[in-house]
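[job 4417] fold queue: 2 targets
>>> target A
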Amino acid sequence: MMRKRLPAKVKVSIFLIFLFILFLHLIFNHIFTVKPKIALLHGDVSLYSEKTGLWTKAVMGQELASGDVLKTGGNSFADIEERGKYTVRVKSNTELSHTKPLPKFIPGSVRYNTQKGKALVWIQKGFKGSKFKIKTPTAIIGARGTKFLIDISPKMDFMTRIGVLEGNVAVVSSSTLGALRDKEVMVEGGQATEVYANNAPLTPRELLDKEWNEMIEFYQIGKPAQVALLISDGINRTRELLRPCPLYISDVEPRTVSVSLEETIRIIDDAIKTQDKVKHLAGIKRLEQILIDYPNPSYEPQILLFTGAYYNYLGMYDEALTAFMKVFDTYPETTFASMALYASGIVYDEKMKDHAKAVHYYDLVLKNYPESPEARSIKAMNK
């Protein structure tokens, strides 16, 4: 039985319909999706274009289309960003491919793949309602608003380590086995997990000091506050403050902090390295004078919390409590206030052995800041 051939007009019509659909697809991708750009680069950075099939030297402002791959050499890095939505800092010896762009006018999802290396991901407020996913050889990481690090170790069968500075991320195995893909782990601020090949993610653990230091770089990405406490945004942040935590001064221009403040932070950093408590005390006294000489509400609560933490470290508990209470009294509407109250409770409870007073401050946290990370920590402690 002979097949009937399609008339030439029908063939032409089908071909024209195909071209029209292709044209609409190209127009949609060009007009209605957002292409991330290279916002910053340093050293040996190259870009593979799926369209041309060629590797070229990456340049500032260059866009990444779906399927493009960014590669960094040794001692190199690059920032990929959709302004106000997210930034990915691609560290040295890393390859990152962009596999799905974000819609321009509506919430959607954006996806990246990385086969090796390390990256810092900062998802910002403008990303609200959308989803961010990044796939590695052993894991799939999903987030909506957070700061997290991924680090792939080829020496350990491409094990992926995920550390979270703020917010939380959902992690599953990238294995094709359905049973593993169903075992999702939530990693909160101040925690990390590892995912080995063909295994579910490990139970989240607290970040190690070395891992905290790895993520200090987040405070250099974008335009963060000029003065920042290097702590997470999770329920352990007040404990991290009392270690005591480092204080970071951004190098973003224009400068809004005094030279005296920068010099003082250097003195304290040196005291940390040498365990010199005399230098610690001298640095804290200088910080207190700076707040008198250069009052600035954009960094005063951070510095007050910082000085309180160091007074606690030095065993000067009354001075620590004074600093913490000034934060609560002066900045009650900020996120720092609940930290100050909780820190006061911890000092009374664990240093001054006055549990009754500690409970008073814990109750103030629960009453005034019931949704704060500190309130969650107190509730967990009382279970």
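>>> target B
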Amino acid sequence: MRLGWQDELQNNVTSIEELKKYIDIPPAEEEKLRRVVDIHPMSIPRYYLSLIDRSDPDDPIRKIAVPSVHELDVDGSYDTSGERDNTKLTGLQHKYARTVLLLLSNICSMYCRHCFRKRMVGVSGEETMQRLDEAAAYITDHPEINNILISGGDSLALPTRVVEHCLEKLVDIEHLDFIRFGSRMPVSFPDRILLDPGLPELFRRYSSKNKRIYLITHFNHPAEVTAKAVEAVDRFIRAGIIVNNQTVLLHEVNDAPEILARLLNRLVSIGVNPYYVFQCRPVKRVKSHFQVPLARGYAVVEEAKRRLNGHSKRFRYIMAHPTGKIEIVGILDDEIYFKYHQAKAAVDMGRLFKKKLDDTAGWLDDLEDCVEDGPEMPCC
């Protein structure tokens, strides 16, 4: 008898001892990896493990899923986007006027090693939503909000009946236009969808009630676009759900133009719209081994675009900064240009600015202001 999807997740690899059955781990690293897992748990579906090239210690899928000794480097921050400052209720963040973020789960099918919410995912439920009624009341009282992003953790790690309960509470809020679910399930554990046909059907039913539902996926490498992943995505598309994708630019995973272009072209071919390519955030235990310098990241993205068609290069190269979503627009001589795509402060919306180029800087705060061009024209 075939197990249900929740039962399948109980078979995830969660210890270094189990992991050694699948990949070679140098003896000198074992104790360090155990220390990492004690701090930030490991959980890898056996499906995702099957995508790793066991003969390649630098396999990109391995880097995404398997703990690294680099995670002992604590340079960086656990809250790189100012999420704590934007929390209005436990599990509810309101940073941008039109959008509310609900954190409904602190678990995922897999704990990606580059996760920007390492402070909570798989570790603590203190930041997740406990009272959905309070969230619905907050949203109702703020008519400027027209959309909700449901995330976590993974929004689809919740049982389907809980997802439905959530939708029941939200779809009747008159000023909402759409609801987004952020999930890596189609990527890391497509059986969540394939073994539960009720989930796409649930989305179909609720999306037809004038509250359009979107699915935001998180494919990072072409090797993740398997037949199972394509089928999982297609279940949603056939249910009338628009599927967008957010990719994180990751060192030695997808920071080669040909790899990034292959991923984005492949996504469009299966009906998934590239939405953002994110600059990797300077997260503790992530920054040192995953972040690509901004100058190099921009070069990679622009070279990748040469290999893309109009449909596959509609995405923006974005940095999720405490002050807003900042697009990396261009480089001219020794200056790098940015534009606020979204902003916490209304005065910043659409603002174009520049900083002095630094080939080693990976984040806005690492860059120096430009010298003034003149008394009436400040550089930034």
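[job 4417] complete. Note on B: The longest strand covers residues 324-332.
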